[in-house]
Amino acid sequence: MRERRASPLPVVVAVTGASGAPYAVRLLQALAAASRPTWLVVSSHGWRLLATESDIASSDALRDAVGASNWDPWITAFDDTDRGARPASGSARTAGMVICPCSMGTLAAIAAGTSRSLVERAADVTLKERRPLVLVPRETPLSAIHLENMLRLTRAGATVLPASPGFYHRPRDIDALVDFVVARVLDHLGVEHAVGRRWGEGDEATE
């Protein structure tokens, strides 16, 4: 009798109002390519960000940017105002959550435990259930308040992964810089992928 393999647990992906829309789109593409179920939540400021930086002004436009063939089987979208949705419950099992990009307002709310939206509640649940929580802030410079909130979240078990791409792999375009950050996010979520290039691998790619 053939052994039945369990489906992988979903990854919760949230998009908020910090700069970095291309990171969010590429992350969704990579998760779908890796055949990982994804629960997506975009805040109102996240939608404004997508429109401003990537000309993505609707859920249909985001679906087109990710690719309909990947979106339909793998991505389920939830309204950020619906605090009764599945990502808000600890009994709904997930593989973890990433907020990419993560605004400082969202980061502060999570650090204080004052969840006012589905994004913030899902992050709160991820922490209390001891699941991976990856936060991708894009802010510079950082104030003492920002740093203290990041430290508090790190001590609570979150991973603060700033959108700070490296240059040692000699990127030739913006896509390579985006892939650098997205690859690190996927690594910390435990998702196997072929995004970007690891140190010491594929040196011929720079030729």
TrEMBL record:
It catalyses: dimethylallyl phosphate + FMNH2 = prenylated FMNH2 + phosphate. Keywords: Flavoprotein, FMN, Lyase, Prenyltransferase, Transferase. Dimethylallyl phosphate binds at residues 168, 184. Gene3D superfamilies: Flavin prenyltransferase-like (3.40.50.1950). Residues 11-189 form the Flavoprotein domain. The keyword Transferase applies. Pfam families: Flavoprotein (PF02441). InterPro entries: Flavin_trans-like (IPR036551), Flavoprotein (IPR003382), UbiX-like (IPR004507). It is an enzyme of class 2 (transferase). Its EC number is 2.5.1.129. GO terms for molecular function: carboxy-lyase activity; flavin prenyltransferase activity. The keyword Hydrolase does not apply. FMN binds at residues 17-19, 43, 103-106, 138. SUPFAM superfamilies: Homo-oligomeric flavin-containing Cys decarboxylases, HFCD. Belongs to the UbiX/PAD1 family. PANTHER family: FLAVIN PRENYLTRANSFERASE, FLAVIN PRENYLTRANSFERASE PAD1, MITOCHONDRIAL. Flavin prenyltransferase that catalyzes the synthesis of the prenylated FMN cofactor (prenyl-FMN) for 4-hydroxy-3-polyprenylbenzoic acid decarboxylase UbiD. The prenyltransferase is metal-independent and links a dimethylallyl moiety from dimethylallyl monophosphate (DMAP) to the flavin N5 and C6 atoms of FMN. This is Flavin prenyltransferase UbiX. It comes from Gemmatirosa kalamazoonensis. The gene is ubiX.
